[in-house]
Write a structure and sequence with these properties.
This protein has 139 residues and is an alpha+beta fold. The protein is built from two helices and five strands, in the order αβββαββ. The relative contact order is 0.18.
Length: 139
């Protein structure tokens, strides 16, 4: 007497077509987002230029509908009775923004870095980011 034969085991079905399409769609969406995040990190951490500017600190304010950023204005004048050159800048550090807020109306010297190509204004409205400030002594 022979034992009844068991039915042959069927191979497990592979991933369904919908799963494969979902996987490819997720990769297609995540890839560009990852590249955008990497690009944004790179332009915010690698400066195009840096230096110092001095002048009369005219304004510092917190602006924006969704992304609140600190924006400032420095009036640079070489000669009295000549219209000043207005230089706009952004501040990412709240501590520096508070320091600048207490110096409005005074002559200051700021250190800045320039970051070109930042893809959004959530980091600042200008490409110039001030990272330190000092008061310029009068004559």
């Amino acid at each position: 007497m022979t034992a009844p034969e068991s039915p042959a085991a069927e191979p497990a079905p592979g991933p369904s077509r919908k799963r494969r399409i979902g996987k490819y769609l997720a990769i297609a969406l995540a890839g560009p987002l990852l590249l955008l995040a990497l690009y944004t990190w790179l332009v915010l951490h690698w400066d195009y230029s840096n230096g110092y500017r001095s002048g009369m600190l005219q304004k510092i304010s917190k602006k924006g509908w969704v992304c609140k950023t600190y924006e400032g204005e420095l009036w640079q004048s070489v000669v009295a009775q000549v219209a000043p050159n207005v230089w706009n800048f952004s501040v990412r550090d709240e501590r520096i923004a508070r320091q600048l807020d207490s110096l409005v109306g005074q002559s200051v010297r700021v250190h800045y870095t320039e970051h070109r190509g930042v893809p959004t204004t959530c980091f600042g409205e200008t490409p110039y980011f001030v990272d330190s400030v000092s008061v310029v002594a009068g004559p």
